[in-house]
Design brief:
Radius of gyration: 25 Å
Distance between the termini: 30 Å
CATH architecture of the largest domain: 3-Layer(aba) Sandwich
CATH topology of the largest domain: Rossmann fold
Strand order of the largest sheet: 5-4-17-16-15-6
Number of strands: 31
Bound molecules: ligand MGD, molybdenum atom
Structural class: alpha/beta
Shape: globular
Length: 759
């Protein structure tokens, strides 16, 4: 648009992603948080064999011994934790909780690292320092006074295998399977969908597969921001001539062009590399239609030229193919085109590229999972791969991009509200207590139980539970109804401040820091997106001498809560090898755990599907049937748009590092709504108009006011706003029913110009 009005903080970003801009942003992040002398040393230790695992994302490193792969957002994650700023008891004495609640999420965390164990004092509305042992004793007393099912154990995926294992052991000995987990808001559709399809809840590819693949299909993820080290992999693939087909409603710069800061020549010559060979701006929520379209076109291609469908593989390894074909035949092109926003010709082109490739990888993220049919979406991705035998052979497979750096590991070591009978039996055998058999709460169910007053206590192993969940206006008050909340954290956040009758705040030793226990310095272990388990040991002096490690705090609370415990908690934390021995004894795949994590690069968890062994009830890989094309009646109303909630480039989930979103051309603000120009014209909204957004389902009035609409290259019918500000618009019970994951990326909304709303 030529004469578009100027909007403060909104500028077009035309450069490639990465490059000199990324280098500049890194140095700014360091300057803002750290002494510049300490910073380079800290960053050099990221992802080194004897260093710590980058808390930024779960993308693997080659053998985990590459030199620090340059990564702007990894550097932000590291410097944010290694900051020299501190939140001390004096700070708390000077600021009431009410006044702290008036600060933004960005301001709260930017105050620095927590230094002391703190307890909330209702009389003065402040937190005051408390002795660790006194805090444990009081928590134990409260927990013993509750029924186990009234207690919620939340895990955010940064916790180590060791901390998470102790956490679940404590909860199960107490008597509950209530494990709300960040994964419930994230890749649960993967954890539910993949086992049904291929018999394992994890991806099947490794970095080597990317070196061999002939086609990459990238659906609903934004690696330039969220998995920056993946950009190196995509960059190499593109340079090798591998076509990369992207399905994403937004034009994400890094998926278009990338300048690799590690490539000296590219940097020196200001050149860049194209990433996507084809960019399909699918409508939000239109992936099922698009995937079905590609599969339908594939069938047509096979009918024409033969040899497209891998019939041998299908006969030997799968079930359900005929039903899939029947459903694809019954699905009509006009429906596919309308819901996906893509033309038949475009989808046929994608199918032709897919038919040409002998080895295809599909990568995907939150754009696929955070929908009311997230699990069904995941199944469709597998269907597409199975049609050409693309699972269990080199260079091919399914690649879910995990979120938190150890979210996958947490699941592996038992953080699940639906534990398997095998695992529970092992616990009983090894520890001699009977763990609860009935299923517990996931994240949404836990919050619903809190809203209803049924759950009384919440222990959070990291994270920002209330802010990460939908419908803040329902969740925030629920936190305040609790009898007890306990938070393990590095930095202050809003969930900590939504105080219960009694609230404790515990400062933890971070990933970058040295953890010394009775037997000496300890390493923890984590599992990356490609199921590699390896050790991580920090070297920096902890943020304060009062910080304790997460395993030590869990053990301390458990020891104080369970007087007749079958577990010798305090002994276990003298040396984390002892925790790993118990993991090995109770869970498959951890044989010789302590020995194998001492090898460079660690080891890979068993992934039967990579060997074409299908751990499903039928022993076969299972095709699915996705009826229809996700034509949700909620979107049928006039003027209804589909809202996706997004991360900016300067944020880590609820942690806001700064207020820019460089690649999307937003600077110094987050109160914007990305809109397609044609939708703007249709609704009479101009670039820069201030609008109110209202959710168009359910009877509760969910509203976000005074948001500036900006024209953006986003698919028609789709609008985008930032998480967590837009969480007020997401109904708590608007979930993918199969997995329980909130539909953060398919909220039907209506817009009104703010002035009209006021009138
Ligand atoms: N720097 C940084 N790194 C992170 C995080 C962070 O916040 N900051 N978070 C971590 C965590 S926990 C996670 S889960 C991952 C998240 O990483 P991603 O999966 O990349 O998550 P999002 O940024 O939420 O959104 C992903 C993309 O989905 C697209 N999208 C939205 N709706 C749809 C749709 O209907 N269809 C399709 N095809 N695409 C859609 C959006 O345009 C966006 O590009 O990253 C991890 N790494
Ligand atoms: N609208 C909307 N909502 C979403 C999403 C979305 O795309 N849209 N994404 C969802 C997803 S994918 C996820 S994973 C969740 C994230 O939900 P969470 O994992 O709960 O949230 P985070 O923002 O990652 O948690 C940040 C806090 O973790 C603490 N922390 C940081 N490092 C450590 C550490 O080493 N140890 C401990 N103990 N604490 C630490 C700090 O105190 C910090 O304030 O949010 C979900 N919510
Ligand atoms: Mo996530």
């Amino acid at each position: 648009m030529t004469n578009r009005r100027e909007v403060p903080g909104i500028r077009k970003y035309d450069a490639p992603a990465g490059g000199w801009g990324a280098l500049k942003a890194t140095s700014q992040a360091i300057w803002a948080q750290m002494e510049t002398i300490k910073a380079p040393i800290t960053l050099m230790r990221t992802n080194q064999p004897d260093g710590f695992d980058c808390p930024g994302c779960a993308w693997p490193d080659k053998e985990h011994k590459s030199t620090f792969q340059f990564c702007e957002n990894g550097a932000k994650a590291v410097t944010w934790e290694a900051t020299t700023k501190r939140v001390t008891p004096e700070f708390f004495a000077q600021n009431t909780v009410e006044s702290l609640l008036g600060m933004s999420d960005y301001e709260l965390e930017n105050m620095g690292r927590l230094t002391h164990p703190m307890v909330y004092d209702r009389e003065t509305d402040t937190f005051r320092a408390v002795q660790w042992e006194a805090a444990y004793a009081r928590i134990g007393e409260i927990l013993r006074g509750l029924r186990p099912e009234q207690v919620e154990f939340y895990t955010s995926g940064r916790a180590s295998n060791e901390a998470a294992y102790l956490f679940q052991l404590f909860a199960r000995e107490l008597g509950t399977n209530n494990f709300p987990d960040c994964s419930n808001m994230c890749h649960e559709p993967t954890s539910v969908g993949l086992p049904k399809a291929i018999g394992q809840g994890k991806g099947t590819v490794s970095l080597e597969d990317f070196e061999e693949c002939e086609l990459i299909i990238s659906i609903g993820h934004n690696p330039g921001t969220n998995h920056p080290r993946m950009m190196g992999t995509l960059w190499e693939a593109s340079r090798r001539g591998v076509p990369i087909i992207v399905l994403n409603p937004l034009r994400e710069r890094a998926l278009e062009r990338f300048q690799d800061p590690q490539a000296a020549l590219e940097m020196a010559t200001f050149r860049s590399t194209r990433i996507a060979s084809t960019y399909f701006q699918v409508k939000a929520g239109g992936d099922a239609a698009a995937l079905k379209g590609i599969m339908k076109a594939l069938l047509e291609l096979d009918a024409d030229q033969g040899n497209v469908i891998d019939r041998e593989f299908i006969a030997a390894h799968t079930q359900g193919y005929e039903a899939l074909v029947a459903d694809l035949e019954a699905t009509k092109w006009p429906d596919i085109e309308r819901v996906s926003g893509l033309t038949r010709l475009e989808l046929e082109q994608a199918a032709a590229a897919y038919a040409k490739s002998n080895k295809t990888i599909v990568t995907y993220g939150m754009g696929v999972t955070q929908h009311n049919k997230g699990t069904a979406n995941v199944r469709l991705i597998v269907d597409l791969l199975l049609m050409r035998g693309n699972i269990g052979k080199p260079g091919a497979g399914v690649c879910p991009l995990r979120g938190h750096s150890n979210v996958q590991g947490n699941r592996t070591v038992g953080i699940t509200e639906k534990p398997s009978a095998d695992f529970l039996n092992k616990i009983e055998e090894v520890f001699g207590f009977t763990p609860p058999q009935h299923h517990g709460h996931d994240a949404v169910a836990a919050m619903q139980a809190m809203v209803e007053g049924k759950s009384k206590a919440l222990l959070c192993l990291g994270g920002n539970f209330a802010v990460a969940l939908p419908d803040s206006n329902a969740c925030f008050p629920a936190m305040k109804q609790l009898d007890l909340s306990v938070h393990f954290g590095t930095k202050l956040n809003r969930s900590h401040l939504l105080t219960a009758k009694e609230t404790y705040l515990f400062p933890v030793i971070g990933r970058t820091e040295l953890d010394v226990q009775a037997a000496g310095p300890q390493s923890i272990t984590v599992e990356d997106s490609m199921s590699m388990v390896h050790a991580s040991g920090g070297k920096l002096t902890p943020a304060s001498p009062w910080c304790r490690s997460e395993p030590a705090i869990v053990a301390g609370i458990a020891n104080a809560t369970l007087p007749n415990s079958k577990v010798n908690w305090l002994e276990l934390i003298t040396d984390y090898d002892k925790i790993r021995v118990l993991i090995e004894r109770t869970l498959p795949g951890f044989e010789n755990y302590n020995e194998r994590i001492r090898r460079p690069g660690g080891f890979r968890m068993p992934l039967p599907a990579t060997e074409r062994r299908w751990d499903t009830p039928t022993g076969k890989a299972m095709f699915s049937v996705y009826e229809g094309v996700n034509e949700d009646a909620a979107y049928a109303g006039a003027g209804v748009l589909r809202l996706v909630t997004l991360r900016s480039h300067d944020q880590y989930n609820t942690t806001i590092y700064a207020l820019d979103d460089r690649y999307r051309g937003v600077f110094g603000r987050r109160d914007v709504l990305f809109m397609n120009e044609a939708d703007m014209a249709e609704q009479g909204i101009e670039h820069g108009d201030v609008v109110d957004i209202e959710t168009a389902i359910g009877d509760r009035k969910l509203r976000l006011q005074k948001i500036t609409a900006i024209a953006y290259e986003i698919a028609r019918g789709s609008v985008g706003a930032y998480y967590p500000e837009a969480n007020v618009l997401v109904p708590l019970d608007y979930i993918d029913k199969e997995s329980g994951t909130p539909s953060y990326k398919s909220v039907p909304v209506r817009l009104q110009r703010s002035a009209e709303a006021v009138a």
